[in-house]
Write a structure and sequence with these properties.
By secondary structure, this protein is mainly alpha-helical. It has six helices and two strands.
Protein backbone atom coordinates (compact mmCIF):
# COMPACT_ATOMS: atom_id res chain seq x y z
CA UNK A 1 0.00 0.00 0.00
CA UNK A 2 1.26 3.44 -0.91
CA UNK A 3 1.33 5.56 2.22
CA UNK A 4 3.06 8.59 0.74
CA UNK A 5 0.81 11.63 0.88
CA UNK A 6 0.86 13.76 -2.23
CA UNK A 7 -1.87 16.19 -1.30
CA UNK A 8 -3.32 17.95 1.64
CA UNK A 9 -6.11 15.41 1.96
CA UNK A 10 -5.58 11.91 3.33
CA UNK A 11 -6.08 9.30 0.64
CA UNK A 12 -6.35 11.79 -2.22
CA UNK A 13 -3.67 11.62 -4.88
CA UNK A 14 -2.20 14.57 -6.74
CA UNK A 15 -3.79 13.17 -9.90
CA UNK A 16 -7.22 13.34 -8.27
CA UNK A 17 -6.57 16.92 -7.28
CA UNK A 18 -5.48 17.78 -10.84
CA UNK A 19 -8.80 16.48 -12.16
CA UNK A 20 -10.57 18.88 -9.82
CA UNK A 21 -8.48 21.87 -10.92
CA UNK A 22 -10.04 24.50 -13.11
CA UNK A 23 -9.03 24.45 -16.79
CA UNK A 24 -6.85 27.52 -16.23
CA UNK A 25 -4.77 25.55 -13.74
CA UNK A 26 -4.69 22.35 -15.80
CA UNK A 27 -3.45 23.05 -19.31
CA UNK A 28 -4.27 20.49 -21.98
CA UNK A 29 -3.16 22.37 -25.07
CA UNK A 30 0.49 22.92 -25.86
CA UNK A 31 2.61 24.36 -28.66
CA UNK A 32 4.90 22.09 -30.69
CA UNK A 33 7.86 24.30 -31.65
CA UNK A 34 10.05 21.35 -32.67
CA UNK A 35 7.48 19.72 -34.95
CA UNK A 36 8.72 21.18 -38.22
CA UNK A 37 12.28 20.01 -37.57
CA UNK A 38 11.04 16.51 -36.69
CA UNK A 39 8.82 16.34 -39.79
CA UNK A 40 11.60 17.52 -42.07
CA UNK A 41 14.06 15.06 -40.50
CA UNK A 42 11.55 12.29 -41.26
CA UNK A 43 11.40 13.47 -44.88
CA UNK A 44 7.65 14.09 -44.77
CA UNK A 45 5.55 16.88 -46.21
CA UNK A 46 2.84 18.52 -44.12
CA UNK A 47 0.24 16.64 -46.16
CA UNK A 48 1.95 13.26 -45.72
CA UNK A 49 2.28 13.67 -41.98
CA UNK A 50 -1.32 14.80 -41.63
CA UNK A 51 -2.50 11.78 -43.63
CA UNK A 52 -0.43 9.36 -41.53
CA UNK A 53 -1.96 10.77 -38.35
CA UNK A 54 -5.53 10.91 -39.57
CA UNK A 55 -5.58 14.71 -39.42
CA UNK A 56 -5.79 17.25 -42.17
CA UNK A 57 -2.66 19.01 -43.32
CA UNK A 58 -4.09 22.16 -41.73
CA UNK A 59 -3.68 20.73 -38.23
CA UNK A 60 0.01 20.05 -38.80
CA UNK A 61 0.54 23.39 -40.54
CA UNK A 62 -1.20 25.26 -37.72
CA UNK A 63 1.02 23.62 -35.11
CA UNK A 64 4.14 24.44 -37.10
CA UNK A 65 2.96 28.05 -37.36
CA UNK A 66 2.82 28.37 -33.58
CA UNK A 67 -0.66 27.09 -32.80
CA UNK A 68 -1.49 24.81 -29.92
CA UNK A 69 -3.13 21.40 -29.78
CA UNK A 70 -4.25 18.86 -27.23
CA UNK A 71 -1.38 16.83 -25.81
CA UNK A 72 -2.83 13.65 -27.37
CA UNK A 73 -2.86 15.27 -30.81
CA UNK A 74 0.79 16.23 -30.45
CA UNK A 75 1.64 12.72 -29.24
CA UNK A 76 -0.09 11.15 -32.25
CA UNK A 77 1.70 13.45 -34.67
CA UNK A 78 5.06 12.92 -32.96
CA UNK A 79 4.64 9.13 -33.11
CA UNK A 80 4.39 9.41 -36.89
CA UNK A 81 7.58 11.45 -37.33
CA UNK A 82 9.92 8.65 -36.32
CA UNK A 83 12.03 8.13 -33.22
CA UNK A 84 11.95 11.68 -31.87
CA UNK A 85 11.78 12.79 -28.26
CA UNK A 86 8.24 14.09 -27.67
CA UNK A 87 9.49 16.53 -25.01
CA UNK A 88 11.70 18.24 -27.59
CA UNK A 89 8.86 18.44 -30.11
CA UNK A 90 6.37 19.77 -27.60
CA UNK A 91 8.42 21.85 -25.19
CA UNK A 92 11.83 22.79 -26.47
CA UNK A 93 11.89 22.68 -30.24
CA UNK A 94 15.14 23.16 -32.02
CA UNK A 95 16.67 21.60 -35.11
CA UNK A 96 18.45 18.74 -33.38
CA UNK A 97 15.30 16.80 -32.59
Amino acid sequence: MNTRRTSGYPGESSRALARKATPELRPTHYPAPGLRAAREAAGLTVEELGERCGYGAGVVAALEAGGTAHSQTISRIAANTGPHDLRRIRDEGGSDV
